[in-house]
């Protein structure tokens, strides 16, 4: 039998339940979550952050003759 449930992980009990479910990966499958995927203005995604960081690191290394 398959059950569909909604669990809010904003509370200690919800976090505990989600963590307990994650530990039973053979029996439990997380299909998706409802997370706000829009990035607020002025923020960047993790991919954008790592790309910008890499450019900055390369620039600093070239400046000091490391690349």
3D structure, described in words:
By secondary structure, this protein is mainly α. The model has no long low-confidence stretch (mean pLDDT 87). The relative contact order is 0.07. The chain is built from two helices and no strands. Helix content is 43%, strand content 0%. The chain is elongated and about 60 Å long. The protein has two domains: 1-35, no CATH class; 39-67.
**Biggest sheet statistics:** none
Domain module count: 2
Specify the overall morphology.
elongated
Helix and strand pattern: HH
| Rounded radius of gyration (Å) | 20 Å
Q: Flag low-confidence runs.
A: none
What is the assembly state of the chains in this entry? single chain
Tally of helical runs: 2
Name the structural class: mainly alpha
Number of strands: 0
Give the CA-CA distance, first to last residue: 58 Å
How confident is the prediction overall: mean pLDDT?
Answer: 87
């Amino acid at each position: 039998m398959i059950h569909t449930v909604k669990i809010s992980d904003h509370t200690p009990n919800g976090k505990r339940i989600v963590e307990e479910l994650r530990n039973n990966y053979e029996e439990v499958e997380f299909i998706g979550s409802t997370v706000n995927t829009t990035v607020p203005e002025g923020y960047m995604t993790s991919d954008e952050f790592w790309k910008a960081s890499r450019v900055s690191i390369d620039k600093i290394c070239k400046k000091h003759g490391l690349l």
